[in-house]
Amino acid sequence: MTDTGDLVFGVGYMASHFQLQTLNDDPVFTYRECSGGAEEDGAASSGYGKVEIFNDKYHGLYTIRPNLTITLNPGQKAPPCLADVRESILTEDGTMIVTVYNRTQTDLSSVGGHQAGWVQDPLAVEINPV
After folding, report:
1. CA quadruple 117, 37, 79, 18: dihedral, nearest 10
2. How many CB atoms lie within 10 A of CB 52?
3. Residue 8 lies in a domain
4. For 21, what's the count of Cα atoms within 13 Å in the CB-facing half-sphere?
């Protein structure tokens, strides 16, 4: 909003994690648009979505929606973006680091779990937004 209350930029109600960052020595802002999460699909500790990158004139530069090959929980529908983009950091090299949660089936009986249990494998993925 401007000082007089005029809207400069608006996004949907499921937007969050606004950050001022730098991309190729230029100021940008990034935010996350949600498309799911633990409450919707049973994927505990993850929230899927995409990251939008805008310049200081509010012009869209890039949409970060990586197509990754990961294992999901049994029965879980694949969201449009498999990155958990709550963590999205632009690097000095002009890339973005996002977190991803792969699921791996393993024997959890030694810790009181199911013999065919599932664990989360947190990963960090580097993406070139261009």
Report:
1. -140
2. 21
3. no
4. 23
- 60-113 pLDDT, tens digit per residue, is 999 888 777 888 777 777 777 777 767 789 999 999 998 888 888 899 999 999
Global pTM value? 0.72
Per the structure, the count of domains in the chain is 1
Is residue 4 included in any domain, yes or no?
A: no
In this structure, is the dihedral angle defined by the CA atoms of residues 21, 26, 29 and 35, taken in order, positive or negative?
A: negative
Q: Is residue 103 part of a domain?
A: yes
User: Strand ranges (DSSP E) for 12-82?
Assistant: 15-23, 26-34, 49-55, 60-64
Name residue 118's beta-bridge partners. 105
Q: Rounded to whole angstroms, how far apart are CA atoms 86 and 81? A: 12
Closest CA to 55 of 90, 87, 85, 83: 90
Query: Residue written as tokens 């190729």?
Result: 24
Q: Are 67 and 125 in contact (CB under 8 A)?
A: no
pLDDT digits (tens, 9 = 90+) for 12-49: 667 777 889 999 999 999 888 775 554 444 444 456 77
120 assigned to some structural domain: yes
